[in-house]
Write a structure and sequence with these properties.
Layout: E1 13-19, H1 25-35, E2 50-53, E3 56-61, E4 71-77, H2 81-97, E5 102-103
Antiparallel strand pairs: 1-4, 1-5, 2-3, 3-4
Organism: Microbacterium lacus
Protein name: Aspartyl-tRNA synthetase
Length: about 110
């Protein structure tokens, strides 16, 4: 956790998923919360996130204004890179079941 109390994808470990959908950040977080049977934490702040399981959460990184999709879903873990990757794989499967097309980033796309 950083000095300001914010957990971010720059924290201990993360795995990225890429989604090619034109969607607002909070709408994307709502869908992630739905498929994870969770809630959006800190929704009214600059740093919302969705708890996925103990010690793992998802954050959404939307392109800057005017940039087209894709957007990134950073799945973060306090445990290990393998834990982040496993949580990301489970989230990707759940998102695909509701019709999202999810992929790993291409080299240089991060």
């Amino acid at each position: 956790m950083s000095i300001d109390g914010r957990d971010t994808a720059s924290g201990p470990f993360s795995a990225m998923l890429v989604v090619d959908l034109p969607i607002a950040k909070l709408d994307a977080l709502d869908v992630i919360a739905f498929v994870a049977d969770s809630t959006v934490e800190n929704a009214q702040t600059a740093f919302p996130r969705v708890p996925l399981e103990p010690n793992a959460w998802a954050e959404v990184q939307i392109p800057k204004f005017g940039d087209p999709p894709p957007f990134a879903v950073d799945v973060c873990s306090d445990v290990s890179p393998a834990h982040a990757a496993a949580a990301a794989a489970r989230l990707a499967e759940a998102l695909e079941r509701v019709g999202w097309s999810v992929r790993l980033p291409r080299p240089g796309e991060a």
